[in-house]
Task: inverse folding
């Protein structure tokens, strides 16, 4: 995941810090949330996030029982 370093004035930092405390979030979490809100970033439910991940990465396709798969992986 990319990292972004920011330089900001004290007043802005303190305002974000205060909002982070109000929402029980870290400064970084609150900053990301503010940016997402500004750009109307879609918020996915856990089910939607899982479906999006599977669509991107694909699913494991194997009809063998799990213990057989594990045995093959360990070999």
Result:
């Amino acid at each position: 995941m990319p990292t972004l370093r920011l330089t900001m004035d004290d007043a802005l930092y303190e305002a974000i810090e205060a909002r982070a405390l109000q929402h029980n979030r870290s400064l970084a979490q609150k900053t990301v949330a503010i940016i997402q809100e500004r750009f109307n970033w879609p918020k996915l439910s856990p089910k939607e996030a899982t479906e999006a991940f599977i669509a991107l990465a694909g699913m494991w396709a194997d009809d063998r029982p799990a213990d057989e798969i594990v045995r093959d992986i360990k070999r």
